[in-house]
Design the sequence.
């Protein structure tokens, strides 16, 4: 009788797919590991002088699946948060958005990029905050809430990184070269006015997601592909019906983030299976 010894070695990819169309929704191929658990609760029959159970009745199996991903993919948000990712095209010279009023009257406030200083643009939000200068005038504080291209500069406050504070006049212009932005004020420069602008440095494109507007929870298929081994052994684990919902985000100090994605494998009512495991034997045998 030949013996073909096999074991799972590593993980190559986890594929999430639409249960109905079988179209791929997401492929995770930078993964640290994962596992499928099936546990069954049992109720023992004890009694009399017996020193142990004389019978067991078994409950319903409970299934759980986890995979540790070392990447963030757009498909994670579509799959786990039921929200689409909004893509933006590459921006060779960066981007600055329209004014958003935070408080006061900021009609006419604008922001623009200083030519030649595009590489200084931060990633996040730039705020223009009108404050009293301590006497009869006002100043414009420029605050960055986000990532600075040159690292932290200026001084820090609990409500953002104050990059500059300059005298403000109605319809005046303020240039802050170390963040690559020029601001034009409106006719109202009353203390308490706060305007916000979205800012991005030169980039190769990106995306944003807005989580919380849509209900979470959906059913998908999940397939785990294991790498071909040197002896030719191969494994594929397919869970055709899984419930997923809620995407965790985690990070650590000076280390790549690891995201623990969870799913609950359910019985596929079409086939009656929770999962199926396919394997190819190795070429060697004895």
Sequence:
């Amino acid at each position: 009788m030949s013996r073909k010894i096999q074991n799972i070695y590593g993980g190559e990819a986890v594929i999430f797919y639409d249960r109905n169309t079988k179209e791929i929704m997401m492929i995770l191929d930078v993964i640290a590991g994962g596992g499928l658990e099936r546990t069954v609760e049992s109720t023992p029959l004890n009694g009399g002088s017996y020193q142990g159970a004389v019978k067991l009745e078994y409950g319903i199996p409970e299934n759980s699946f986890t995979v540790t991903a070392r990447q963030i993919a757009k498909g994670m948000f579509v799959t786990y948060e039921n929200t689409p990712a909004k893509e933006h095209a590459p921006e060779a010279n960066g981007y600055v958005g329209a004014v958003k009023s935070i408080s006061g009257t900021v009609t006419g406030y604008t922001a623009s990029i200083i030519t030649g200083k595009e590489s200084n643009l931060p990633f996040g939000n730039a705020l223009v905050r009108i404050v009293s200068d301590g006497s009869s005038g006002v100043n414009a504080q420029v605050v960055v809430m986000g990532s600075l291209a040159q690292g932290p500069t200026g001084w820090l406050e609990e409500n953002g990184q104050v990059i500059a504070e300059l005298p403000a006049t109605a319809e005046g212009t303020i240039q802050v070269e170390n963040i690559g932005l020029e601001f034009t004020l409106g006719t109202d420069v009353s203390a308490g006015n706060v305007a916000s602008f979205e800012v991005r440095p030169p980039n190769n494109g990106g995306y944003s997601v807005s989580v919380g507007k849509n209900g979470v929870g959906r059913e998908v298929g999940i397939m785990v592909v294991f790498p071909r081994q040197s002896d030719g052994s191969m494994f594929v684990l397919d869970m055709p019906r899984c419930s997923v919902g809620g995407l965790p985000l985690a990070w650590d100090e000076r280390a790549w983030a690891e995201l623990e994605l969870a799913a609950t494998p359910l019985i596929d009512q079409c086939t009656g299976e929770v999962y199926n495991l396919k394997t190819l034997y190795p070429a060697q045998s004895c």
Remarks:
- The two ends are 8 Å apart (CA to CA).
- Confidence is low (pLDDT under 50) at residues 153-158.
